[in-house]
Amino acid sequence: MPPTASAAGVCHADAAAYTAARIVFNREVATRTWRIRLDCPAIAATAVPGQFAMLRIPGRSDPLLARPLAVYETFTDEADRLPAGPGAGRRFVDFLYLVHGKFTTALQDIGPGNELIIWGPLGNGFAAAPATDHLVLVAGGIGQTALLAFGRERLGGGGAYGAGRHVPPARRVTLCWGARTAAMFGDVDDFRSAGFDVRLATLDGSTGRKGTVIDLLDDVHAGGSIETAAGSTLVACCGPEGMMAAVSRWTADRHLPCLVSLEAPMACGIGICFTCVARVKDPETGGWDYRRTCIEGPVFDATSIVWE
User: Which CATH architecture group holds 12-122?
Assistant: First the structure.
């Protein structure tokens, strides 16, 4: 299992920034999917791929609690220019959200110039190790949110995240992204322009391959670009639990390392409420125990999760 926040003796909530952030833009990019950019250097300069933040609309008591959103990407300015290397300050942070509840329904109506309360970055994110030649990213729904910066970092096109951490480069990155229909894909060019090999699948066949992300993985594997030798291929996955469980089984059958970024409801983001717990295997006892997605995760080794 890769190191988690607790295993490393670190709680990211201890160093998280709590601040007000100005909205730069807030726009719909796909069916019910919105992209919001915040002017928030306190988080943009410190976040690493796979981390998240808690957002709240100020002056409102319904919803009362903040909601977690994964960091999509960070920028030096409003024109999407990424820093060239360590020392180039990141100021703006983007999030994607699906409109489906009180918070996101209200958020879509808040325009540029207004402020949100934000706390982060939180969670362990994707570790700098292990090294891999081929990084395969698997997204379902809006699970791509957690994967763009990770792939960019491994290709060297995202500059240095956080405190300028060094990561071993990958020679190629493939994105396998599945959705119900073509209208649910938003800002796909972000991944293409970053140099990813983008594979799309839809259940209705409206774009890309008709099928699921497992069909896409089968295609990539059949094409010979997924190798099982140590260090050759690393899979990272984010999306609905059933999809991640299927990807976990697919990779385990082929003895491929797989990381999953769990999507869990959260009320606090600091490990107090225990609403985001996942069942994680305990190698010492042979059983399992609950681990908090907000503290020990959201990124886990796929083989450590007890899938339903």
Answer: Beta Barrel (2.40)
Is domain 134-304 given the CATH code 3.40.50.80 in the classification? Answer: yes
Q: Tens digits of per-residue pLDDT, 70-127?
A: 999 999 998 888 876 655 689 999 999 999 999 999 999 999 999 999 999 999 999 9
The two structure tokens encoding residue 125 = 């994110």
Per-residue 3-state assignment (H helix, E strand, C coil) for 57-88: CCCCCCCCCCEEEEEEEEECCCCCCCCCCCCC
CA distances in angstroms from 177 to 40, 203, 207, listed in the order given: 29, 11, 11
Asked if 12-122 and 134-304 have one fold, the answer is no
- Please name which of 98, 94, 80, 79 lies closest in space to residue 40, comparing C-alpha atoms: 94
| Length reported for the chain | 308
Domain positions in the chain:
12-122, 134-304
Nearest CA to 97 out of 25, 195, 5, 28 is that of 28
Structure letter (DSSP) for residue 129: -
For 100, counting Cβ atoms within 10 Å of its Cβ (0-12 exposed, 13-18 middle, 19+ buried), the class is exposed
Strand, helix or coil for residue 157: coil
Q: Is 228 exposed, middle or buried (0-12, 13-18, 19+ CB in 10 A)?
A: exposed
Residues 169, 155, 177, 34: what is their CA dihedral angle, to the nearest 10 degrees? 130
**What are the tens digits of pLDDT across the range 184-216?**
999 999 999 999 999 999 999 999 999 999 999
